[in-house]
User: Fold this.
Amino acid sequence: MFNNLQLNAKLNLLLAIMFSLIVLVVGSFLAQILSTNAKNTVTDRASLLMETMLSVREYTSEQVKPELASRLETEDRFLPETVPGYSAREVFENLRTRPAYQNFFYKEAAINPTNLRDKADRFETKIIEEFRKNPKNQQTANFREVSNQEFFYIARPIKVSQESCLQCHSDPALAPRSQIATYGDEHGFGWKLNEIVGAQIISIPASDIFSFIRGLQIQVIGSISAFLIVAGIIIDIFLRKTITKPLRSMSQWAKQVSTANTKEEFVHKANDEIGILAASVNRMKVSLEMAMNMLDSQTPKKSDDRKS
Ligand code: HEC
Assistant:
């Protein structure tokens, strides 16, 4: 079938196949590079926020808590400002009031929390249980879809690593009075030393960056395709002008020469391969004419001989 096609159609088919391959290969490379890039960007963002929250926690336990610790026994109301998890959460809530960070989430989720707003949901409970099963695992991170929106989360285990934690989280009798007055004695107790009681989870939206990447991909592939189509049209015009059109008129001319319908030479201005071919066929035409003339001048003599 390919053999039956015209030269132009063959070349166009070849170009179309080549260009499609280019778009396909460049497209899939681009998709891979951009998606790796997008993943790195969201991971970096989430990691930065996680480290910031850890710094807020450290600040609270090193600078705020010692200042306020003595008041916990005397105040009627517990001072949650002394709790690292509380300050981290409050700082993050402030961040969330900015429109750009509305869909960012931070939680110190616990299976048995002191403050019920920290109660782990099903998804968070699963993460905490995974950390309990693999105590060496210090971080888990992945993508997750929540109500049709893609999120990226990073989770780190919360371990009761210090004896001092047990004052407020083991036996209610040991806890400051103000804590019992504010939170009651039912939640957030019975924790053990070195037990993984919860997980710090940060969750940031990934849909916007992925749709941005998708848009970029479409733009780049669109521009490459447009460029290749224009290049294809230029190549097609060039091939028609320099090869197929001259060849077609040469074949028409050759047909006329063969039926003795023309005395003209084949005219081709360019000095390319078609020009060389044109010069050769013109020489061949002259030789052919000379041979015919010689034949013509000899033939009548022979017939005369036969007559006499
Ligand atoms: C002075 C008492 C006190 C001490 C000491 C203390 N906590 Fe807490 N912790 C609390 C209170 C009260 C809350 C709830 C604060 C709030 O309202 O968010 C809390 C909250 C938490 C939370 C968030 C989940 C929850 O229970 O609501 C975690 C996790 C936590 N503490 C871990 C620790 C660890 C680990 C230590 C030891 C390094 C520690 N705590 C030491 C009183 C304490």
